[in-house]
What we know:
By secondary structure, this protein is of the alpha+beta class. Helix content is 34%, strand content 24%. Strands 1, 2, 3, 7 and 10 form a five-stranded mixed sheet that branches. The radius of gyration is 36 Å and the shape is elongated.
Amino acid sequence: MDRAGRFKVEGVQSLMDQGSNLTPTSQDDFQDYFNNQLSVTSTASHTKILRRDKQYSKRMKRRLVYKNGDCNISQTNIKKMKRRYLADIFTTLIDMKWRYTLTIFVMGFVLSWLMFAVIWWLIAFSHGDIDHYGEKNWSPCVKEVYNFANALLFSIETQHTIGYGSRYTTEYCPEAIVVMMMQSCFGVIIQALMTGLVFAKISRPKKRANTLMFSKNSVISKRNGKLSLMFRVGDMRKSQIVEAHVRALMIKKSITKEGEVLPLAQHDMNIGFDTGTDRLFLVWPLIIEHVIDEDSPFYEMSSDDFYREIFEVVIILEGVVESTGMTTQARSSYLPGEILWGHRFERLVTFQKNDGEYQVDFSRFHSTIPVDTPLCSAKELASTGDPEGDDQQPYEDSSSSGGVTSRSPSHSPVNTSYLIKRNGEMQTVDETNHVQSSHHSSIQMD
């Protein structure tokens, strides 16, 4: 049952309690009153839910790092920004968009051709080659250059060492020889710069990050008896990322003891730095685990707190591209609404007996399944024990060869009762550790 349905049932129950106190003669009046109040209750509940969902959708847009890795940051009021960008002109050109890079590529060659074409035309004009064109006894500086079109063709042939044979410089003009040497050197330089620019832009390791995948959602469930936040990373290419390692940060507004407001404070999340599990052998998709312990920023956050808090989990994957030897970095992030409490990732690696290979089914890369998970915080779970250890039920796993996978061994009973999440529903554990359905058991959790 959805939230609107739950509010509607509660309103019906309240009206029925009022109707039981009326006399039989007023039952008709109560029926009209009941229908009117039921309509008002349903409308108010639906409006409240829509308002809450609208506010949550606005918070969803406040993303610092997009799913493709781009950062939602704009920089303003930087002094001498253009001068600093021009000081590092090569990096500036590489960071430009392709349309601007190709425009600069074409304009660089065209302008150099035109510039030297003007110089060759001025040489021909000053030497008198244009006025004496066609005279047999006249020795021109450049053969067959008597107008601007001929000068442009000769400029292109000289710069790119084409040399068709009809136009060439003679030994009668030293200035023509000097200009020819200058254009030859300039042509080599500009061609090397433009070719290197395009090659560097094509071979950027940033493009390698496009084949590194992050799961659309992260999940929170129990692993080895502890609540853990998990996400999945994978590589679509067979060429490996050497020395791959991963980091995780929580970005959240924070206030210091002195009252200073830090709008984007970074809180480091341990994903195995002390044990070395943050360094990955990324041949098949891996599930990265952050144990929610005393050092975790989520230690005191329950399932409801995740949807009330405003934060963002940023994932950074770095490594060396095996093919080029350059370092690449891939980024992604998860908002509170993209963290699924009480889920785990579906298995996607299977062994094929017919060919003896391990097969990775990327159609299941983002798939999750619900599992039994306490809804309390990790701090409360550590102080009270494991409420669901004695009543573990097998669950279906379509990726498993047998179809049914058993739970972990049972634990000792606990002397407490609170909500857990079992198969997507909230349920209660009583003092004898038996699972009973609570009054919220019909609410499906995301």
